[in-house]
Amino acid sequence: MEKERNKTGSRNPKAISQSNSNLLLIFFLLVHWVPLISGKEVKEEVVGYGYQVGSVNSGFTGKSLTADLSLIKESSVYGDDIQHLSLVAR
To answer: What is residue 69's three-state secondary structure?
Structure first.
């Protein structure tokens, strides 16, 4: 402990920095190893699979865009999915 203090009696900043680095390393190791040690498999739940663009059309003036979207695969995480969507951007 005496080696970590400088001439004024305060703690050495390098020793403090190293101590903080060690604590941070231990924290990250625990966060990543706890699920492995517990034996429980972490299962990620898919929220949705998204939509596929079927066709895209631009308006007569060129200032709007319409796209037809179809559901790629159903997912019941938040309820029923909308099978077909029409996206209009102006």
So the answer is: strand
